[in-house]
Give the backbone structure.
Amino acid sequence: MSKVIRKAEKLADAILESEEYEGMAKAEKVMDSDKRAAELVEKVEALQKKIDQNKQDEKFKKEMSSLQKTMWENEKIKSFMQKQQSFSKLMSKVNKKISQAINPQDSHHDHEHK
């Protein structure tokens, strides 16, 4: 097995052990175990499919907006979404570090905008 693959596996293990991933996974289990939260998530997923198939239909978009508001009012879903955002930020930082290592000239340009 190549050195790169072994390191990628170690990175994957570190990600799975991260506070961000563990927090998201726990919040997802709590959310999934709540019947009301699970129903809301299923409705949103079904509605998203309708929106994807009928991109011009404003009725579905308004319904999605209303459902999303209801989701944010559900503490279990809200907790999961917040944990998911934290995990996404971590993954974004990981990807950025890898990109900077591969293209160091991009990292100098990136620092100028901070």
Summary: The chain is about 90% helix and 0% strand. Residues 50 and 95 are 32 Å apart (CA to CA). The chain has a mean pLDDT of 90. The helical segments are 3-16, 19-33, 35-53, 58-73, 75-102, 104-112.
